Amino acid sequence: MNKEILKSKEALVSEVESLAKASGSVMIVSFSKMTVAELNELRLTLRKINSKFAVYKNTMVRRATDKLGIKDAVLDETLNGPNGFIFTEDALEGSKVVVKFAKKNDKLVLKGSLQEGKFLSADQVKVLASLPGREQLLSKLASAFQGPIRKLAVAVKAVADQTAA
Questions:
Q1: In angstroms, rounded to a whole number, what is the distance separating the alpha carbons of residues 57 and 98?
Q2: Do 86 and 144 fall into the same domain?
Q3: Rounded Cα distance, 133 and 149, in Å
Q4: What SS3 class is residue 133?
Q5: Residue 85 reports pLDDT greater than 90
Q6: Which of 17, 45, 158, 162 could hold 64 in an S-S bridge, CB 3.0 to 4.6 Å?
Q7: pLDDT at 165
Q8: Which domain holds residue 66?
Q9: What is the domain-level CATH number for residue 126?
Q10: 103 and 47 housed in the same domain
Q11: In 10 A of CB 58, how many CB atoms?
Q12: Would you tell me how many other CB atoms lie within 10 Å of the CB of residue 69?
């Protein structure tokens, strides 16, 4: 094999490896029936959440996951046919956006996701997407803390009103 070809393949593998390391999740999707306009819409949607859609050869992705120490039989089965890879910083937000887009456009098929060195099936990603976001959880937590404090304030005011009367 030509040395230039080998160097370009090594560069591709290292690119995929560095993107995967920097990402909270790498989602694997099938996009073969999508039009260029639909792919551009997906890319625009992903760009809003600092995510990237890219197409790599499955062998390059396998080599990158091997370098990262990720070995999973289901992942190997998933890496067949034309695949797109979505690299996203926030696994929860990224899965929400991709699942929502896939519901709207049935030509995008979610195959699975790599998160924290583990492979998640499409169904597991859909469950993850249904979880509340960080802001929602913080809001619920703040509300849970305010409830008892509010009750205490009402009780103190009621005691103060009784002693004043």
A1: 21
A2: no
A3: 25
A4: coil
A5: yes
A6: 17
A7: 64
A8: 3-131
A9: 3.30.70.1730
A10: yes
A11: 16
A12: 7
